[in-house]
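Continuing the batch. This is chain 6 of the set; chains 1 through 5 are on the previous pages. Same settings as before, nothing changed between runs. Recording input and output for traceability.
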Amino acid sequence: MTVQHDEPAPAAPPAPPERAGEGPGPLARLRDAAFPQAPELPRPPWRWAAWLAFLVGAALYQAFRTPGVGAFDTVWAEDGANFLNDAVNDGPIEAITRSVNGYFHLYPRLLAEITTLFPVSWWAVVNTSLAIASTCAMAAIVYQASAAHLRRPVLRLLVAAPVALQWVANGEAVNSVATLQFCSLYTAFWLLVYVPKGRLGRIGGPIVVATAALSTILALALVPLALLRVALRRDRNSLWLAAAVVGAVLVQGLGLATGQASRSGIGETRLDPAWVVNRYRIIQVPTTFLGEKVVPTLDRNPELVLLGWAVLLAALAFAFWKALRPAWVLAGLAFALSVGLFAEEIVAMGKVPYRYLVAPAALLVTAAVALLRPRDAAPPGDGDPAGRPRLVAYAPVAALLVLLVSVALVNYRVPHKTRTPFTPSWTAQVSQRAAECRADPGLASVIVLSGPERMPYGKVNVPCGRLR
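Output for chain 6:
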């Protein structure tokens, strides 16, 4: 009898040895540079106390920077005439799905629904408090989301500073829920380059990004970055983020296409690339590094334009210093989005309102910080201990920090030409209007001003039933 033995399966061919010096391909390097994995952060026992001190300090800084009657006794522009007015007079669904200035404002309208739960005399305090809390929350998100790109806290505080300290549009953009959209675009940028490890980041990121994009049509500028992340990372979280941005932008576009939203009478479109570039050169860059007080003087003081550009070009020059490890890809993405957002804003409006400088300025600060990143602040594997001592490497960052804090303090309380002198006290008005309602039982509603009476955005129609 013959016994047959099974032939052993042929072994798989050995993997070719890795060539000396061979590393990841260019797309993998671009992926790791643009969207690095978030690191495991140290959790010192005092971190919650530090966070509380930071958030309270940021809130106090913002609370007292509105000149005139002050933020806690005024309601400004769309906050009152659109959001609070619609929340108190219409149902929640009808109010939330109503567009203003050609697009939907999901987040401000949700805040208005909360505010109108309180007595009318409290609305100014609650509205301002929600605006401040939202701003502080966005600064905290930026700080957290920047950890993979910038490993040292001082750098992360620098990129969060434009949200908490905002120095380019005090009168128009501070302590208002309508203008939270500008900081939300900057926050969304950081969430799109953030690759979280925990469930909270993976779930919360798309929700925050979708909320931001459903609150401003300017989120269209974020679409290329979201698609780039999908193409390079190809993971579920990237798909959810892209779906959040693209889906929300489609909703905003459908509003315009169906006529539910309209930009009729809102500015004049100006498709002039040379004008856009010139405005970015003359206004955006100098204002970012010098503050809003210089804006009225820029056309007649070209030396201020040069000074603003000198800061950005100095950061670029220092990037070639051996003690630094610049985040070139991050700097490029931030600068490109800064230019893109600025162009999108002013082309649609035909002019350059100060509030349109907020998000592009924050992105320019990020570009400068990315260029000045020391070696030990780079992600693991990207930096190395070579070069000068660590403290010397942080000298350019320290200089930028001193400059921006100084600019923020100089521009702390800048009056606005209409908001400061013409927005009356909310509590005084409510007290007077309540007396009118009580004196006339047949009176159905009264007007409380949220800006100059002659302005279309300055009136809140309050039912007398809320005041008697």
